[in-house]
Amino acid sequence: MSSLVEEKQMKIVNSTVLVTGASSGIGLATAVRVAEEGASNVILIARDQKRLEEVAQKIRKTGAGAHAYICDMASPDELEETLKSIRREVGVPNAIVNNAGAGRWLSLRELKGLSEIDTALNVPLVAAMKVTAFFLKEMENGVVVNITSPAAEINIPGACAYGVARVGMRRFTELMILDERNRPDRNHYALVTAGETATAYFEKNEVGNDRVPMRRWIRTLTPEQVAEAIVIEGIQKEREEIYLPTEISLLSKLRRWFPSLVQACVTHIFGWQPKV
Q1: Alpha-carbon distance 238 to 243, whole Å?
Q2: What burial letters (b/e) apply to 97-116, b meaning 16+ CB within 10 Å?
Q3: How far is residue 105 from each of residues 39, 96, 137, 201, 256, measured CA to CA in Å?
Q4: Residue 275 is assigned to a structural domain of this protein
Q5: What is the pLDDT of residues 192-225, one digit of tens each?
Q6: Do 23 and 101 touch, CB atoms closer than 8 A?
Q7: pTM assigned to the model
Q8: Residue 32 maps to which CATH number?
Q9: Looking at the 3D structure of the chain, how many domains does it have?
Q10: How many angstroms separate the CA atoms of 161 and 185, rounded?
């Protein structure tokens, strides 16, 4: 093994990594992957106690320590108490993966109540900011990886609150990079923009994934593929921007070159058309 690879792996080996939304999908795959890469402790946050304990058992089989915390991250009081318990019982993480996400893929007219807006914005955006802020002053040269979707790049019809939250994740990451850039103890911030992933997300929505524009032409990812990008590209290689699959990277570049054309295609040709 080359010295370069060893240096990169040291970002995970014997480290403590916190993963939110760790009971399933991308969070589960990421938690297992960091354990396999040599993390000594993996902190897991999610709402589903049974599933979270199953994830913890998988991690312990790798030889890493697993610390499961049941928490509704949309609740300010519950989140703060959970973070205090983590600091007291495990310590300050070396890396944070802000993966937890909620909110339904619906237009504003389709939401059943104002509380749905709170849910969509609180998790991922507000929760990610709070988790990062809680440990920020104690982390030194750590890594924070935020997860978003192509809705952060392009306005996607029929997903208003969801889209606003994902745009917020992009701005949050970019502003943290700017705010921390001159600090000798600065943390590295990465944004992973992942296309449609084979998780249970759309099963929990009233609408199916047929609203995802151009899905016939863009590959569906597995949680393991996204986890690999988070761990290898985001944590170990410290890349600031990661797009996957390749089609999403190409779409992002096209949007920057031809913003009006790409938006028109997404809106009028491939996008969801509201019923009037």
Answers
A1: 14
A2: bbbbbbbbbbbeeebeeeeb
A3: 34, 26, 35, 9, 25
A4: no
A5: 999 999 887 777 666 667 777 777 788 999 999 9
A6: no
A7: 0.93
A8: 3.40.50.720
A9: 1
A10: 35
Q: Which domain holds residue 180?
A: 3-269
3-state secondary structure of 266: helix
Cβ contact 64:91 at 8 Å: no
* Cis before 150? omega within 30: no
Residue 276 lies in a domain: no
190 token code pair: 């990465």
Please state, in angstroms and rounded to a whole number, the distance separating the CA atoms of residues 274 and 82: 41
Beta sheet of 241-244, edge-to-edge order: 65-70, 41-46, 16-20, 95-98, 143-148, 188-194, 241-244
Within a domain: 118: yes
Q: Report the C-alpha gap between 143 and 188 in whole angstroms.
A: 5
Residue 229 is assigned to a structural domain of this protein: yes
Tokens of 73: 């991250």
Residue type, 149: S
**Pair of tokens at residue 37:** 């890469």
